[in-house]
Write a structure and sequence with these properties.
This protein starts with a helix and ends with a helix. The strands form two sheets. A two-stranded antiparallel sheet has the order 1-4. It has a two-stranded antiparallel ribbon with strand order 2-3. It contains 22 helices and four strands. 64% of the residues lie in helices and 2% in strands. It has one domain. The chain is an all-alpha fold. α3 crosses α4. It is globular and about 65 Å long. It is found in: Endomembrane system.
């Protein structure tokens, strides 16, 4: 006879299975939980990194985020708000869109806002631009324009986007781990192996051991291979730091840890400070820099967010085997709505635009196929608001091996591109290589779209191009020329 407790557990599991369609998508409750945990560990660095990027830059009024003059206080506030917004919007993605996609403050956009936007105005004004950008994209989603653009993209270009993102996240992995670095000498190559062409430091060894372990476990079809690898590499990193006292990576200590030093914290809990919530001025920037300049900044932010998410959800859907025959993931409209809301929410909390994270692919690699994984990831972010010191236990070098394996898995889709057809092959090639080369998903997508339209036109096949592809290509031409256009118009 089964116990009441066992019956309740089965009932709860059945509700989750029905709501998230776990069995229908060929997954299990265990896979979804593991996938959600892996995604969190792979992208938890943003709770540490975002405050260091936007919390140490003074705005045009000489103040830090939150209106203070103490960078340490600003960093602490941003860490909490970053985790809060990421947790809420990621849970929203799981519940509303039922898709294994996590969201958090977008890297690249946050640096652009901190160093190129906020220095010309107050932080509140800059965050107002982010809120405006998110609201405009939400309108484009609700009117069906964003989804229509997505559906207008040829299938093979969608495949190229997935492949390019695979190469991109693998490149992110080796860079963040210190396996590949920018050389100190300005006359040297753009990147090089380790330091001066040689691998140096115990952290790189942690990365190599973690990568070998994850790939070995995956090859042997061990359940939880990626999660086991990350946790094992983290334990190894903690032990090495405790013995060798390596410290953070600096110019004087090139063999140090990349972002966070893996050592046990002095305190385990922090008291959340939510002072940055609501610190934005919707139209303040228009007064500070003028209407034209403000609108150009909104356009730049919007186009980057618009196509980054399109590429990310395509890549995640492809890796999870959830795309339909046209390369469209399930609930795509809901995915885009949540992503748009997340962009505005990030601005409203003064942590910069939130967007979909390609690191979600690590959770998919662990077996995640539904939004339950996103709910797990979101809950972990919310917990990190009060246990932020624990997040720093996982260094880059322990988490990034997962990106290498997932990058490989996404690269295998390249066989779906017809490289005998120059009209699609060369645009696909540009998309694939420019994502890692420019460190931008949008730049790769834009270059591929523009070249696709050009090649179709010069070969007399302009009518085969969807009208929206012409519109998007024209917008990307403006995007690439935004610098000189801004100078000319202002």
């Amino acid at each position: 006879m089964s116990s009441p407790l066992a019956s309740t557990a089965r009932s709860g599991s059945g509700v989750l299975d029905s709501f998230f369609k776990i069995s229908e998508r060929g997954s299990t409750l265990g896979r979804e939980i593991r996938g959600g945990l892996v995604t969190f560990f792979t992208m938890a660095y943003i709770v540490v990194l975002n405050p260091l990027i936007i919390g140490t830059v003074k705005d045009g009024a000489g103040q830090f985020v939150g209106g203070g003059t103490d960078p340490a206080a600003a960093i602490a506030k941003i860490a909490v708000a970053t985790a809060l917004v990421a947790g809420v919007v990621t849970i929203l993605m799981g519940v509303v869109a039922n898709f294994p996609l996590a969201l958090a403050t977008g890297l690249g956009l946050n640096a652009f806002i901190a160093f190129s936007v906020a220095t010309k105005m107050t932080w509140a004004d800059a965050m107002g631009l982010v809120v405006l950008e998110g609201l405009i994209i939400l309108i484009l989603v609700l009117t069906g324009f964003r989804k229509a653009v997505f559906e207008a993209v040829p299938l093979q270009l969608k495949i190229a986007i997935s492949v390019g993102i695979g190469l991109f996240i693998a490149f992110i992995g080796v860079i963040d781990a210190g396996f590949v670095r920018r050389p100190a000498a300005p006359t040297g190559p753009p990147v090089e192996l380790g330091v001066g062409g040689t691998l140096r430091g115990w952290p790189v060894l942690v990365f190599v051991v973690g990568l070998i372990l994850i790939v070995t476990l995956y090859a042997r079809k061990v359940k939880g291979a990626i999660l086991i690898g990350i946790l094992a590499a983290t334990v190894l990193a903690i032990v090495i730091e405790a013995i060798a006292n390596i410290g953070a990576r600096t110019a004087d200590n090139p063999g140090g840890w990349g972002l966070s030093v893996p050592k046990l914290p002095d305190h385990w809990f922090t008291k959340p400070n939510l002072d940055t919530i609501g610190e934005f001025s919707l139209f303040g920037s228009f007064e500070k820099i003028g209407v034209v300049s403000a609108l150009l900044l909104v356009f730049t932010l919007m186009l980057a967010d618009f196509f980054d998410t399109m590429g990310t959800m395509t890549a995640i859907g492809a890796e999870a085997g959830l795309l339909d025959k046209d390369g469209i993931p399930p609930n795509s409209q809901r995915i885009l709505i949540v992503d748009s809301v997340a962009a505005a929410a990030g601005g409203a909390a003064s942590v910069s635009s939130n967007t979909s994270y390609i690191e979600s692919a690590s959770g998919v690699g662990e077996g995640a196929r539904t939004g339950l994984a996103s709910v797990i990831t979101g809950i972990c972010f919310l917990i990190s608001m009060v246990v932020a010191p624990l997040v720093t236990l996982v260094p880059y070098e322990a988490a990034t091996p997962a990106l290498i394996l997932v990058g490989f898995l996404m690269m295998t889709q390249v066989k779906g591109i017809d490289f005998d057809d120059i009209e699609v092959a060369f645009p696909a090639f540009l998309t694939i290589i420019l994502m890692p080369f420019t460190y931008s998903i949008s730049a790769g997508i834009g270059a591929g779209f523009v070249m696709y339209v050009i090649l179709k036109a010069v070969r007399g096949k302009a009518r085969q191009v969807h009208p929206l592809m012409w519109v998007v290509a024209a917008l990307f031409v403006v995007y690439f020329a935004i610098g000189p256009l801004t100078d000319w118009l202002t």
